[in-house]
């Protein structure tokens, strides 16, 4: 569906998205802070302009028509891009204001990212920071939708997306996390995971896919003790003795009750900083990138990176 900005107003798209997300015209009007008749009038005007109904209103239930389903991701992206452009213009006088919407995996949020964010906030206190925590697949989706400016994701991408630019910044080991009272071992072979109860992340986590691929390559399907957790939940379940888990090495830095055992053959993952190819990062996002790379370079030079982590990019 082609949407021309000269014909369709951004406000109409905002009203459309509000109705699509609430599935209720009155609630959408309250969210948009507009009278319900005015919102309905603008939705009708949008439908007339596009030449197709966007909502089905049968029996009081509001649902998207096929045309509405096609428009929704485009409308979200156009609104996100318009907001980015507005903020970029506001930043032209300098980085006294602005916003960075950053996505990151839970292991990075719990580790290196906090220090980098603190440095950035010190240098640019007027820039608003929004951090979205999620699995790598979820972050790639949010980038493509225009809901994030930058994201720290895991390579390789599960699906090739030519709309993203990626820059490798870190490499780290994946290790087997277990309760620290089980006795330390120098390493564990992938085959030894056969039949062991595993605490497994929910779908969308790259570590889940890496673990499953390694086990299948070794000729077996792993057995799950618990499945579907986020990072903190997985680590807590391992501490409680429910099973073992394959996790990024850096998350164990703040978990004295857990120990990490390297795997043979070794499993590593690569972390990349990504942004959309069709949208130039804002000045605030570019400044954050510079801060992050400088932090990683200095941490690598003075030996303060967590064990098993290697910086790949220079500032």
Give an account of the 3D structure.
By secondary structure, the protein is of the alpha/beta class. The chain has helices at residues 10-22, 25-32, 36-50, 66-90, 106-109, 112-123, 136-144, 206-217, 231-239, 283-301; strands spanning 55-56, 63-64, 99-104, 128-133, 150-155, 164-179, 188-189, 197-201, 223-229, 245-248, 258-276, 309-311. The protein folds into three domains: 10-88, Orthogonal Bundle (Arc Repressor Mutant, subunit A); 95-167 and 271-311, D-Maltodextrin-Binding Protein, domain 2 (3-Layer(aba) Sandwich); 171-270, D-Maltodextrin-Binding Protein, domain 2, CATH 3.40.190.290. The protein has ten helices and twelve strands. Strands 3, 4, 5, 6, 7, 10, 11 and 12 form an eight-stranded mixed beta sheet that branches. Helix 8 (206-217) links the parallel strand 8 and strand 9 (223-229). Helix 1 (10-22) crosses helix 3 (36-50) and helix 2 (25-32) packs across helix 3 (36-50).
Span between termini: 41 Å
Q: Give the CATH topology of the largest domain.
A: D-Maltodextrin-Binding Protein, domain 2
Number of strands: 12
Low-pLDDT segments, ≥5 res:
1-7
At the fourth level of CATH, the homologous superfamily of the largest domain is: Periplasmic binding protein-like II
In short:
The chain contains 10 helices and 12 strands. With 315 residues, it is α/β, with parallel strands linked by helices. Strands 3, 4, 5, 6, 7, 10, 11 and 12 form an 8-stranded mixed β-sheet that branches.
Please name the defining characteristics of this protein.
single chain; 8-stranded mixed β-sheet; Arc Repressor Mutant, subunit A; disordered N terminus; 10 helices; globular; alpha/beta; D-Maltodextrin-Binding Protein, domain 2
């Amino acid at each position: 569906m082609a949407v021309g900005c000269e014909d369709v107003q951004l406000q109409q798209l905002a009203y459309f998205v509000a109705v699509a997300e609430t599935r209720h015209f009155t609630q959408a009007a309250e969210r948009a802070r507009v009278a319900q008749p005015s919102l309905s009038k603008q939705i009708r005007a949008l439908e007339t302009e596009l030449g197709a109904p966007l909502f089905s209103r049968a029996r009081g239930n509001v649902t998207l028509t096929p045309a509405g389903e096609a428009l929704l991701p485009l409308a979200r992206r156009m609104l996100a891009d318009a907001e980015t452009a507005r903020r970029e213009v506001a930043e032209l006088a300098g980085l006294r204001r602005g916003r960075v919407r950053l996505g990151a995996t839970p292991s990075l949020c719990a580790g290196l990212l906090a220090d980098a964010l603190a440095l950035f906030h010190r240098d640019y206190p007027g820039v608003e920071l929004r951090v979205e925590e999620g699995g790598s697949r979820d972050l790639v989706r949010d980038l493509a939708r225009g809901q994030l400016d930058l994201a720290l994701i895991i390579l390789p991408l599960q699906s090739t997306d030519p709309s993203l630019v990626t820059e490798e910044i870190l490499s780290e080991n994946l290790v087997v996390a277990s309760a620290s009272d089980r006795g330390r071992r120098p390493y564990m072979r992938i085959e030894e995971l056969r039949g062991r109860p595993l605490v497994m992340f929910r779908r969308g986590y790259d570590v889940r896919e890496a673990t499953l691929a390694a086990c299948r390559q070794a000729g077996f399907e792993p057995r799950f003790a618990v499945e579907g957790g986020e990072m903190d939940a997985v680590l807590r379940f391992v501490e409680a003795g429910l099973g073992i888990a394959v996790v990024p090495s850096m998350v164990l830095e703040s978990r004295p009750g857990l120990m990490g055992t390297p795997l043979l053959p070794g499993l590593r993952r690569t972390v990349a900083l990504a942004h959309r190819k069709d949208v130039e990062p804002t000045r605030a996002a570019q400044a954050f990138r510079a801060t992050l790379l400088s932090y990683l370079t200095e941490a690598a030079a003075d030996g303060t990176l967590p064990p098993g982590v290697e910086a790949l990019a220079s500032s």
